[in-house]
Amino acid sequence: MITKKKDIRALSKEDLRAFFVGIGDKEFRGNQVFEWLWSKGAHNFEDMTNISLQTREVLKEHFVINHIEVDHLQKSADGTIKNAVKLFDGLVVESVLIPTATRTTACVSTQVGCSLDCKFCATARLKIMRNLNPDEIYDQVKAIDKESRLYHSRPLSNIVFMGMGEPLMNYNNVLKSIDKITSEEGLAMSPKRITVSTSGVPKMIKKLADDEVKFNLAVSLHSAIQETREQIMPFAKKFTLTDLKESLEYWYEKTNRRITYEYVVWEGINDAAEDINALAKFCKYVPSKVNLIEYNPIDDGEFRQASSQITNNYIAALEKNRIPVTVRRSRGKDIDAACGQLANKQ
Ligand code: SAH
User: Fold this and answer.
1) 317 Cβ contact partners less than 8 Å away, ≥ 6 residues apart
2) What's the CA-to-centroid distance between 113 and ligand 1, angstroms?
3) Is residue 339 annotated as a catalytic residue, yes or no?
4) What is the CATH number of domain 69-335?
5) Phi/psi class of residue 158: alpha, beta or left (left: φ > 0; alpha: ψ in -120 to 50)?
6) Does the active-site annotation cover 118?
7) Is 6-64 a CATH 3.40.50.720 domain?
8) Is the pTM of the predicted complex or chain greater than 0.90?
9) Distance, CA 244 to ligand 1 centroid (Å)?
10) Ligand 1, atom 21: nearest CA belongs to which residue?
11) pLDDT per residue over 48-90, tens digit each?
12) What is the CA angle 127-129-130, rounded to 5?
C-alpha cells in the first residue's frame, strides 16, 4: 500500500532524535527507535516493545516502515538461494545468497531494471524502472544474513553489489546503504568484505575516490578494445575506455586499492590474440586482478562462451604479465540466479 506518510527509515538518527524532542519526548527515544529500525530490523511499530504504546501511536500517525517482502525463495542444487524481493510499491527485484565452504556471499540489486544496455545481460532488457532506496538495499542484505544463519548456520560474510542495476547510477542510495551495513547500528560489517561492481562510469568512479570509500571496486570490462566494447556494451560510446582508464588511475592514486576486472570470453567477440594482449595491457595501468566469469546464456545463442582453450590462453597471457587471474564458476544456474540472469522470470 502506498501512503503519503513518510518512510521513517529515510530519517537519520539525528533526524529521529530531533523528532522526539519536537514532540516533547526525550532525545534518547530516537536512538531506541533507530536501533529497532536497523539492527533489530523491525517491520512494524508494534514490535518496538520498549517504546510506550502512546508513542508508538504517534509514530504510526506520522510514518510508515516501507520494508521489503521476500516473496519467493528458490534453492539451487548447489546451495545458492534466489530471493524474489517485493518492494512496497509492488515492483520486484532479485537477490542471491551464494554459499561456499567458508563463506556466504550476498549478491544484491540496486535498481529495478537497469539503465545500461549490455547486450549479454538479462537485466538490461528490463529497462530502468526506478532506483532502490537505501533501506531496500539494506533489507536485501539483512534478509540474506537471516537465511545464511538459518540454512548454513553462520552469518553472512561478504556482499557483492552485482545484482540487478548499475550501482553507480544510484550512487547516493548505494553509499547510504553501505553506511548502514557497516555501521554498529546496522550489520557492523567491514567494508573490506563489500565489493561494488560497475560497468564503468568514469565520473562516478572518481567520485568514489573523492568520497574515500573503503569498499572494493570491480569493473565489468569484457573488452579492452574500444570498438569491441561498444558493440557489446553500447553505453561505452559515452563512457570510453580512455576515460575509464583515467578514472581508475585516479581511484588508485587516492585509495591505493587494486581493481578487479570482470571478464567473459565469447566466441568470435573477444577470443583473438589481440583481445588478450589488449587486456594484459589494460591491466598494467593500475594494480589489478582479473576474474574470468563463465557465460550464462540468456537467449537464442547470439553470445557463446569461448572454448576452454581460449580461456587458458587468457590465463597464460595474464600470468606471464604477473596479473592475478581467477576463474569464477557459475552458481545457481538451474534457478536463473547466476550473473546476468536476474530478470524476474516468475
Ligand atoms: N551493472 C554492474 C552490476 C551488475 S554485476 C556491472 O555491470 O558491474 C553483474 C555482472 O555479471 C557483471 O560483471 C556483468 O557484466 C556480468 N554479466 C552480465 N550478464 C552476464 C551473463 N549472461 N553471463 C555472465 N556474466 C554476466
Assistant:
1) 276, 277, 279, 280
2) 13
3) yes
4) 3.20.20.70
5) beta
6) no
7) no
8) yes
9) 17
10) 340
11) 999 999 999 999 999 999 889 988 789 999 889 999 999 999 9
12) 130
